[in-house]
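Dear H.,

Thanks for agreeing to be a second pair of eyes. The structure we're designing against is below in token form, covering all 436 positions.
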């Protein structure tokens, strides 16, 4: 709990980077076109975060297990390899983003009207790719060394700066969407400086040095293998966002893409406490497993599950009872609010099963079971959501079918993931506890 609570708060604050942008952008004018344009950039942002998770989340559990086993030298190499992989991938992603942004955005569901806003946001956001990836990818190493409050402050710093700069750039300087992106880049740059200052400083248990920032094939392979589950989870989110936006543009137009942008934003708000608790427990699970304390490992997994279920039930009730109020936070467009109320209720049905998905995924990843983690990432998004997103509208459900795909996948995928985790991970831990 001591590790999870600061990280939960940090995750909530981190949400403000993008959510505050959307709130201000949604209230820029009388329609939702600017918000729709920013929503079209989500798959690009998600893909950047996928590579961040690949090399950040993939290294942190290995680092925690090495630290738990007392192998400091291996921990230093893992940390340095993550840093090197993040830097290289950031440069490549930024270059690819600038080269292909126009065809990519139209493939993602842009219209001529919404593309203007999407391009304005992405042109500036891409310039800060390296800051985004360092902040998010390396902050986990601060938490894994037992400094969750320092990790929390790195996120709080950027979020506070972003909140201050957003209204100045968007409204006072009349920069609009470009101002929101610039505020985000500046705030992420400051967070990146904070993270690197700590990791390279004397207060770190296992400090980072530039000599360690090298790509070693064997360690990079281990990081990539374990991080592949997180990468696939994010990359499949990207695929789902593309399928949803393109299908909504085909069957409904910009208004419905705007509704999905708001729905995803509300979902992010409610998912943060769950992902924060689970993310905070991951280093604890990995550390105790490496230290052979299997009882505490099991209890952390059980705590994740129980807390997640209770919370997501409460969150679903809030959305069901007050959908218009939640939509109104992100837009003052009356047409979007009226259209979105029933669609938001559909989208959030079965939300509680997401907690089961995250509990199972985090247990698999924390203990190095990449095979199961990858499979269940693919099952929920690629095997269930994407096909349903394309099929349901075509067989008569129209735009409602796009919003129905998510709850169906939550029920099937979440249940399957959790039950498999119980019959594999928990049973294995119980056998180890009995023998100890």
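And this is the sequence the design step returned. I haven't edited it by hand at all.
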């Amino acid at each position: 709990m001591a590790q999870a609570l600061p990280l939960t708060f940090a995750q909530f604050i981190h949400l403000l980077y993008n959510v505050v942008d959307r709130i201000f952008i949604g209230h820029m004018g009388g329609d939702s076109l600017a918000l729709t344009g920013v929503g079209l950039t989500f798959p690009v942002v998600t893909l950047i975060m996928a590579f961040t998770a690949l090399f950040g989340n993939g290294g942190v559990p290995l680092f925690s297990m090495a630290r738990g086993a007392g192998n400091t030298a291996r921990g230093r190499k893992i940390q340095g390899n993550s840093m090197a992989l993040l830097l290289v991938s950031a440069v490549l992603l930024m270059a690819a983003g600038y080269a292909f942004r126009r065809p990519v955005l139209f493939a993602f569901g842009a219209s001529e009207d919404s593309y203007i806003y999407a391009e304005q946001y992405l042109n500036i956001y891409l310039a800060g790719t390296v800051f985004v990836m360092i902040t998010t990818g390396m902050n986990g190493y601060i938490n894994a060394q037992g400094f969750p409050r320092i990790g929390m402050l790195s996120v709080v710093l950027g979020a506070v700066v972003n909140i201050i700069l957003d209204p100045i750039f968007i409204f006072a300087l009349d920069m609009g969407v470009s101002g929101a992106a610039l505020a985000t880049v500046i705030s992420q740059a400051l967070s990146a400086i904070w993270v690197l200052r700590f990791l390279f400083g004397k207060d770190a248990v296992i400090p980072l040095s530039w000599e360690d920032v090298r790509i070693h094939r064997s360690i990079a392979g281990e990081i990539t293998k374990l991080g592949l589950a997180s990468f696939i989870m994010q990359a499949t989110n990207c695929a789902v966002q593309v399928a949803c936006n393109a299908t909504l543009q085909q069957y409904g137009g910009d208004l419905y893409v705007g509704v999905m942008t708001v729905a995803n934003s509300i979902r992010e708000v409610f998912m943060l406490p769950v992902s924060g608790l689970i993310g905070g427990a991951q280093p604890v699970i990995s550390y105790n497993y490496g230290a052979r304390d299997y009882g505490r490992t099991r209890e952390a997994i059980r705590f994740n599950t129980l807390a997640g279920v209770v919370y997501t039930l409460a969150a679903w009730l809030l959305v069901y009872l007050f959908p218009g109020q939640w939509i109104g936070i992100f837009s003052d467009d009356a047409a979007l609010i009226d259209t979105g109320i029933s669609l938001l209720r559909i989208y959030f049905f079965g939300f509680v099963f997401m907690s089961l998905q995250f509990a199972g995924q985090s247990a698999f990843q924390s203990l190095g079971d990449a095979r199961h983690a990858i499979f269940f990432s693919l099952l929920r998004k690629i095997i269930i959501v994407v096909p349903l997103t394309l099929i349901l509208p075509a067989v008569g459900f129209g735009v409602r079918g796009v919003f129905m795909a998510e709850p169906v996948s939550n029920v099937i995928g979440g249940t399957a993931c959790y039950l498999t985790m119980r019959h594999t991970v928990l049973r294995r831990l119980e056998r180890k506890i009995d023998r100890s």
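Two observations from my side: The two ends are 25 Å apart (CA to CA). The chain has one domain: 4-435.

Warmly,
E.
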